[in-house]
Every structure is written in C-alpha cells, then in structure tokens.
Amino acid sequence: MSIFFFSAAAVLLSSLLAPVSGQSSSSCSTSLTPTNSIKPSVASGYQAALVATGLTRPRSIKFDNLGNLLVVQAGVGIESLQLQDNGGTCITVKSKKTVIQARTLNHGLALSQDGRTLYASSPEAAYSWDYDPATSTASKTNTTLVSNMTTEDHTTRTLLMSQKVNGTLLISRGSTSNIDLEAEVLSSGHSQIRAFNLLNITSKGYDYNTDGLRLGWGLRNSVGVAEHPNTGGIYSVENSVDQATRDGQDVHEDNPGEEMNFHGYLNGTVYAPQGSNYGYPYCFAAWAPSDLPMNSNLTVGSQFAIGDQNNTINDTYCAEQTLPRLTFQAHMAPLDIVFNNSGNDGWVTFHGSWDRTDPSGYKVSTIRFANGEPVAPANSNTSYTDIFANANNDVCPQNCFRPVSMAFDSQGRMFVSSDASGEIYLVLRDEASNGTIEGTGSSGSDGTKTSGADRLGSSFGALVFAALAIRYIT
Ligand SMILES: *[C@@H]1O[C@H](CO)[C@@H](O)[C@H](O)[C@H]1NC(C)=O
Ligand SMILES: *[C@@H]1O[C@H](CO)[C@@H](O)[C@H](O)[C@H]1NC(C)=O
Ligand SMILES: *[C@@H]1O[C@H](CO)[C@@H](O)[C@H](O)[C@H]1NC(C)=O
Ligand SMILES: *[C@@H]1O[C@H](CO)[C@@H](O)[C@H](O)[C@H]1NC(C)=O
Ligand SMILES: *[C@@H]1O[C@H](CO)[C@@H](O)[C@H](O)[C@H]1NC(C)=O
Ligand SMILES: *[C@@H]1O[C@H](CO)[C@@H](O)[C@H](O)[C@H]1NC(C)=O
Ligand SMILES: *[C@@H]1O[C@H](CO)[C@@H](O)[C@H](O)[C@H]1NC(C)=O
Ligand SMILES: *[C@@H]1O[C@H](CO)[C@@H](O)[C@H](O)[C@H]1NC(C)=O
Ligand SMILES: *[C@@H]1O[C@H](CO)[C@@H](O)[C@H](O)[C@H]1NC(C)=O
Ligand SMILES: *[C@@H]1O[C@H](CO)[C@@H](O)[C@H](O)[C@H]1NC(C)=O
Ligand SMILES: *[C@@H]1O[C@H](CO)[C@@H](O)[C@H](O)[C@H]1NC(C)=O
C-alpha cells in the first residue's frame, strides 16, 4: 500500500514540475548562487527566481507600504530588504537594513493596517514598535502586547493582523510536546488560536492564556493562519502528531494527515464551532484510512483516536469534535497560508517531514477556493496542486529548500522564504513560461531533475546550513 502510494506521488510530482535551468537570463544580471546544488523546480505556468541568499534562518516575511521586504531572521531580529525591481522575475536586493536587533524574535511578524506599527513575537510575547517605512526604522522601545506564552518545543507564535476588523491581532500557539495533555486545560493557552483587540488594550497588556477571544483549541501546532480576503473567514494549517500508534500498531508513516481548519469570522458573525475543540491531543485526521486498524467507517479527514480506545476517548468521541476542512499528506509540516487577491487560491508552504521514511512536503502548493471555501470536499486527498518543490526530496532536510513564509508584492508576485537554505525566492504566474528558474547566474550544478529513486552523488559540497537539520523550530 505505501509503496504504491509513494510511486504514485513521485509520478504526480514529475508530471507537474519542469526541470530547473542554471542559466541566468540575458535580460537580468544577477549572480546569486542557490545554496543547494539541487535547486527547487517550478510547475509549468509559473516562473521562479532567486531573490536573496545568505540570510540567517529567514522565517516570516512581509512587504511594507513602500515595497521593502521585512524578514524575521530567527535569533537575530528583523531586516528590511530594499529591492531593485526590473520587472518580471528580475528582482534583486539593492540594500539591507537592520530594523530591530533582538535575538528572542523567532517567527511572528505583522503590520498594522496603516503600515506604521510593526508587530513581532518571541516564544514569550508579542510586541509592537512604531515603524517608518521611508527610513526602515522602528522605535527604540517596544510595547508588550500579549505575554505569558513561554513553553517548550513548539515556540513560534504566529501573528496575523486582521484586514477586516481593525486592531484585531491573532496569535497562534502550539503544544509543549508531541502529545501535550495540558492542552486539554483551556487556561493553559496551549494549542490555541486567540484574537486580541488592540484598540482598548491597557498598559498591562494581555495574558495569552486568559484574555482575548479563543478561535479554537486542540490545534496541535497551527503555524499558518490567514484571513480570507472576501469573507474575512479565518483558516489555519496544522502540524499534526508524530509517531502515532493505534491498537498497538505503528501507523505513523501516512497518518494522521496535516489539517486545514476553519474558525469563522472576527466581525461578530456567529459560527458555532468558533472556539471549539479541534481534536488534539486525542483526535487526529485520517489521511490513509485503510492503514488504520479497527476501522469500520473512517475516510480521509475523519477524526480518529490514537492509542487504545476506551469508554471515554474513542472514534465516536473524536467524530464529535470539530473536523478539519481539508486534510493533507502526513508530516508535510504546513507553516503558512496566504490567499491571492481574488481569494480564489490559497497558497500553503510545507516545510517538510522528519517522521517519514520517504520525505514529504518541502514544497509550496495551492488550493482552489470559491465563495470563501475550498472547492474540494473534506474527504479529498487531492485538494492541493504543487507549484514550487525540490526536484528530489532524497536530499532533504539538510540540502534542500524548506519553505516557511510567503508574501505577495503589489504586482501579485509571490515571495517565499526558506529558513534552512537562507534564501528568498519569488514565484510568478506566467502562462508563457515552461517552468524554469531565472536569475540564478551560476553554477557547477546543471540542476537536472532526478527521479525519486536516484541517490545523492558525491558532488554535494559542505553546506553551511547542514547543522540546522531535523527538528529545529517549525
Ligand atoms: C522590549 O523592550 C524591553 C525593555 O526595554 C527589552 O528588555 C526587550 O528585550 C525588548 N524586546 C524585544 C523583542 O526587542
Ligand atoms: C484602526 O485603529 C488605529 C489604532 O490602532 C487607528 O489609528 C485607525 O484610525 C483605525 N483605522 C480605521 C480604518 O478605523
Ligand atoms: C477590549 O474589548 C474586547 C472586546 O470588545 C474585550 O473582550 C476586552 O476585554 C477588552 N479589553 C480591555 C483591556 O478592556
Ligand atoms: C501567567 O499565567 C499564570 C497561569 O498560568 C498566571 O498565574 C500568571 O499570573 C500569569 N502572568 C502574567 C504576567 O500574566
Ligand atoms: C461579517 O462577515 C460575514 C462573513 O463574510 C458577512 O456575511 C457579514 O455581513 C459581516 N458583518 C458585518 C457587520 O460586516
Ligand atoms: C482513555 O484514553 C485516554 C487517552 O488515551 C486516557 O487519557 C484515559 O485515561 C483513558 N481512560 C480510561 C478510563 O482508561
Ligand atoms: C466512546 O466514548 C463515549 C464518550 O466519549 C462513550 O459514550 C461511548 O460509550 C464510548 N464507546 C465505546 C464503544 O466505548
Ligand atoms: C463511525 O462510527 C462510529 C461508531 O459507530 C460513529 O460514532 C461515528 O460517528 C462514525 N464516524 C463517521 C465519520 O461516520
Ligand atoms: C489568483 O487570482 C488571480 C486573479 O483572479 C487569478 O488569475 C490567479 O489564477 C489566482 N491564482 C493564483 C495561484 O495566483
Ligand atoms: C487517495 O485515495 C485513493 C482512494 O483511497 C487512493 O487510491 C489514492 O492513492 C489516494 N491518493 C493519494 C495521493 O494519497
Ligand atoms: C515552452 O515550450 C514550448 C514547447 O516546448 C516552446 O515552444 C516555447 O517556446 C517554450 N516557452 C518558453 C517561454 O520557453
């Protein structure tokens, strides 16, 4: 079953993604060399280009009002990249400026609606600074908005500023371990997404665990959060549990799936499941239901109990918790979701697996939406289309790109950060293109796409980022 599954996935990938080219385009002079020998591939109908290299663990990215790209470098602070735009995929970094130096900042980044207040997060708190895009400078002092979030293991605190309800800041927080039983205690604040009203905040700030509006709990580690541009509906993407067993059997290779969940609206419109239990730490979404023992009626996206079922925690209980809106292949580690302007496509980054024999993820995919909802039904296992991916996941996680965060520029070009490789790429929808990567003026490697069966040659150089390896922050 799983052998068939993997070869099917490999065929799908190779039919979608065109080989990359190592030549620089004549119309764009840049000499960036991709960090890794095997460069990512891009789907037919898109173009991609390397924009920046040599960054330190770039996580969230965001354009300011003047088109400067703000980047959180985990453990370093926030950098502003001024870009030289020569059109199409020809974009280079003109200059860089440090906006905030703070080693505690590790992931979250947001801007106020007017672009004059910057928000960023450490494992403990969300802060704000006054921000001037004309000079890429932030105020010397910060304001602590929401605190009391320090815990182990999943330490990113994703920030999302609502574009629909002014002054509403969403913060997503994960669990303290793979299976964190404290997440059942609502006042622990673990594995929740909460919304905070900054318009009436007092100087004391908010306590994450007890203040604000809870949009959901039982969300193991929902690093990606987005607001739909038409409806204002809030979607999140969740990193689900590792090393799952059920009824004494190891089922972790293809179960559970990663989830996309829906949390309703911020404007007061009632959505009954808002704030409810989305399953964790007891219930998880099936991805390969036929691999699950004691399974009478589970389909893709059904919530099932792991471990040994009993008279309180069992599949009946799990079916009653809020179900995912979509389920994705196991262990792909979704870290961001961003909608395009029309709201017809949701882009998702999959940082990539460590808990799977054959690596999964390490790619950017899109999900079709209509009327503010995914087009695919909840039991679909084909809801996403790969746009930008490593040609060969055998080199992952050490020697491949690991997408984290995305931002559209004002012209609808998608920028993608890769923390492990210290890079930022751009992806451009272009019906005329055949899927080549431009502006990568290098290198020894011919970037030839290899099939999933190929093994690494000896040509891989020592890589600065190899030490980042497997389990650093997701
Ligand atoms: C915020 O300001 C406090 C007080 O000056 C400082 O200790 C802290 O490091 C700052 N935090 C960040 C993330 O810059
Ligand atoms: C949004 O809130 C800020 C204060 O945080 C305020 O200055 C601004 O005028 C508000 N904007 C709108 C459109 O209400
Ligand atoms: C701000 O308003 C929200 C919603 O109206 C409320 O839940 C919250 O308690 C208020 N915060 C403060 C500090 O008054
Ligand atoms: C942090 O949370 C604990 C309970 O988990 C509470 O006792 C404490 O007062 C909170 N601290 C702050 C600064 O809000
Ligand atoms: C809130 O959002 C919902 C969903 O998009 C919409 O139907 C409703 O009209 C909005 N309400 C207000 C007061 O804007
Ligand atoms: C039922 O299973 C849950 C989850 O494994 C466990 O926490 C609970 O203690 C079990 N209850 C009984 C009565 O065994
Ligand atoms: C499953 O758990 C529910 C309570 O969550 C209980 O009512 C039901 O009897 C249990 N089913 C079995 C077969 O133990
Ligand atoms: C599967 O069967 C269980 C036990 O009969 C039931 O409680 C549950 O609702 C069913 N789940 C689905 C997804 O149909
Ligand atoms: C985004 O929206 C535009 C405008 O409606 C559309 O043409 C495009 O195909 C969408 N999809 C993606 C993946 O950007
Ligand atoms: C989706 O489910 C079908 C039917 O169970 C199965 O044949 C197929 O291999 C699955 N596809 C993926 C990508 O898992
Ligand atoms: C794409 O491929 C087709 C056929 O192979 C070719 O005719 C066309 O010129 C190519 N387009 C680009 C932009 O390279």
CATH topology-level name of the domain at 49-225 and 337-428 = Neuraminidase
- Poorly predicted runs: 1-16, 18-26, 439-474
State Rg: 21 Å
* CATH superfamily heading of the domain at 49-225 and 337-428: TolB, C-terminal domain
General form: globular
Task: Give the distinct bound molecules.
Answer: 2-acetamido-2-deoxy-beta-D-glucopyranose
Number of strands: 34
CATH architecture name of the domain at 49-225 and 337-428: 6 Propeller
Quaternary structure classification: single chain
Q: Indicate the mean pLDDT.
A: 87
CATH class of the domain at 49-225 and 337-428: Mainly Beta
Calculate the terminal CA-CA distance, rounded to whole Å.
29 Å
Count of helix runs: 2
Percent of residues in β-strands? 35-45%
SS-based structural class? mainly beta
Helix proportion range: under 10%
Biggest sheet character: 7 strands, antiparallel
Pfam family, one: TrAA12
Protein name: Pyrroloquinoline quinone-dependent pyranose dehydrogenase beta-propeller domain-containing protein
Keywords: Signal
Signal peptide: 1-22
